[in-house]
Amino acid sequence: MLSKIHVFEVDHPETQQLKKQKIEIAGLSKPANLHYVPMDFTKDNLADKLQKVGFQFQNRTFFSWLGVTYYLSKEQNQTILKNISSMVPKGSSIVFDYADNNLFQSKVKRVQNMVSMAQASGEPMKSCYNYHELEKALEEAGMLIYEHLSTSEIEERFFKGRNDYLHAFEYIAYTLAVVR
After folding, report:
1. Which of 55, 76, 105, 156 makes an SS bond possible with 72, Cβ 3.0 to 4.6 Å?
2. pTM to 2 decimals?
3. E-state strands within 33-142
């Protein structure tokens, strides 16, 4: 099925270039249905960038937007969500992760390390949401929450009973939202 759908890999130009280099080093080739879309989420317009690479706006679309929202301001996140909602048909969906309001006050060492490393790299984490705030932002963008997983729900569903170091990341939640 993957060969029958088009995948648009949207990421910051520098990050995307690193990904391309790793794929080349691994000896893999780019499939014909993969479209790279370099974009600075803080400056560029998603619809404009997608249009340039042949994105079909009339098709119901699934967006995977992971590891991005906390590096953008709430206003920038809202702009992206509104862009998505306005450019694709009803029933299109997006899955994304976000930091909850307790992230920056966390006493958990790996959370503090993550926040510090992001700051030191020049890409500080900027936004957090509580559930009701997120629900309101999505509603304003023309979307509804279809599924929401808190850190504890992720831990219970996917990591319960593990005896190794792998666990849900504290203060990070996942949401699947649908364009209404």
Report:
1. 76
2. 0.91
3. 34-38, 62-65, 93-99
